[in-house]
Amino acid sequence: xxxxxxxxxxxxxxxxxxxxxxxxxxxxxxxxxxxxxxxxxxxxxxxxxxxxxxxxxxxxxxxxxxxxxxxxxxxxxxxxxxxxxxxxxxxxxxxxxxxxxxxxxxxxxxxxxxxxxxxxxxxxxxxxxxxxxxxxxxxxxxxxxxxxxxxxxxxxxxxxxxxxxxxxxxxxxxxxxxxxxxxxxxxxxxxxxxxxxxxxxxxxxxxxxxxxxxxxxxxxxxxxxxxxxxxxxxxxxxxxxx
Amino acid sequence: xxxxxxxxxxxxxxxxxxxxxxxxxxxxxxxxxxxxxxxxxxxxxxxxxxxxxxxxxxxxxxxxxxxxxxxxxxxxxxxxxxxxxxxxxxxxxxxxxxxxxxxxxxxxxxxxxxxxxxxxxxxxxxxxxxxxxxxxxxxxxxxxxxxxxxxxxxxxxxxxxxxxxxxxxxxxxxxxxxxxxxxxxxxxxxxxxxxxxxxxxxxxxxxxxxxxxxxxxxxxxxxxxxxxxxxxxxxxxxxxxxxxxxxxxxxxxxxxxxxxxxxxxxxxxxxxxxxxxxxxxxxxxxxxxxxxxxxxxxxxxxxxxxxxxxxxxxxxxxxx
Lengths: 242, 320
Hints:
Chain A has helices at residues 41-48, 71-77, 94-102, 109-123, 138-150, 168-183, 195-201, 219-224, 226-233, 235-241, and strands spanning 3-12, 15-25, 30-34, 56-61, 64-65, 79-81, 156-160, 187-192, 204-209, 212-217. By secondary structure, chain A is α/β, with parallel strands linked by helices. In chain A, the strands form two sheets. A six-stranded mixed beta sheet of chain A has the order 6-7-8-3-9-10, sandwiched between helices. In chain A, strands 2-1-4-5 form a four-stranded antiparallel beta sheet, covered by helices on one side. In chain A, strand 1 (3-12) and strand 2 (15-25) form a beta hairpin. In chain A, helix 3 packs across helix 4 and helix 4 crosses helix 5. The longest helix of chain A has 16 residues, at 168-183. Chain A starts with a strand and ends with a helix. Mean pLDDT of chain A is 91; it is low at 237-242. Chain B has a two-stranded antiparallel ribbon with strand order 1-2. Chain B contains 14 helices and two strands. By secondary structure, chain B is mainly α. Chain B has a domain at 27-240. The two termini of chain B are 15 Å apart. In chain B, helix 2 packs across helix 12 and helix 6 (157-179) packs across helix 7. Chain A binds chain B through residues 49, 51, 70-72, 74-76, 80-81, 83, 87, 89-92, 96, 99-101, 103-104, 107, 109, 112, 148-149, 151-152, and chain B through 179-181, 184-185, 187-188, 190-192, 194-203, 256.
């Protein structure tokens, strides 16, 4: 098991954002994590990547107890992530952005530049390498986020809504990219709330609702699951009652 | 041609810097030139943590004061030449960075800046009420040179030469830093800490490295100031205006650029000295500072470096 989380709890004041969530990802898998907005996916994600410390539960990554390790230790162990809102290092070029990731495993500047260029090539950003990163649009920024993460040479890549906010043609390109990343042997955990994307990408999906996993299986299985349907469609009715 | 131009510009700039004070026999201009370089040293030192790593310290006068007091206390208490206080200042700056700087890194953005102001204010009060270090009166250096090691010269030119060497070392060091992994990591931290950390940057460790380097060079600037001026009191060592000067000079020239702080110093120090000479009132220069800060914040947050790049870009576009 590459990544295993058990009974994760994270609260903000009175809100139990993550409430006893479990997850297990095997090396080489491509797992989808879906759920309606506000289900606690991003908070759970932050716990897995070391950005937030859970109040209860434990996480093991690559055979190590990683629950309370800092994000940089996670990166060193081989867990990379992207962020929902794509932030670039504004004062740097696209290549320099990717170099920050590459420096994790390569201290020499020349070597880091080479590795970063490879990551840009792979993500289709090679043509923009010398551009200021701030000049990129949303799709470019998301791709740069992925390139930067790839430059750290991860075993597991956590993608937080990597496709949100993209046009349909950009989504096609992005799906192709994710498939190629997976083909390289990198394990992927993909958070999305667009069902179609998950359908096309993965064979195993976890459905997150109210801070925990309520269903698991193939995309077809989970979309047929009545509890999942209620979670996605029942919100409006519930809000009406309250 | 494109590669040649910055090199030629650099050479011309270096030559001008070297030759500037020798072009005039006027001791006032020579003194202004020396003070400009001294200010450039402390602003460039501030730039390492405040510019590259984006941790805007308004308390760097603490390091300046430590360096200045280390020099004159070495003379007053031990009878050593003031310059011998330099290593003590550096060691004390390291200790301060670790004991005080490290915990304050938990604070981000404006909160970090406010903490640094508080620390500097505290240090000033402490020194004012500590009789061993001269209290509110301050400490004097040697009145006349006992040996060459006292580095007491009537002319400002020898100081200019010393400051130029130190500045060259600091800028060379900064240049190497800029090209290294550490330089990339500091800029990444300055841009977005959370993303930097997710890419494996040990943020607090690298901030500490930056503060250690920045603090040590600022304390060296303080030592050099004390050697030249031969007197320091709580205000001239720990006053908030010393910190503000570093920030404004770096911001004017371009924080996080190699020559930005030097350019800022080359504009503001002569401006300050000129207004003092013309109107005698010490306040005028600071009125100008206020205006400059407002103009920068409004029109060019990246300082003159950004403005310069912008102009060059437009010029190239027109030429093409």
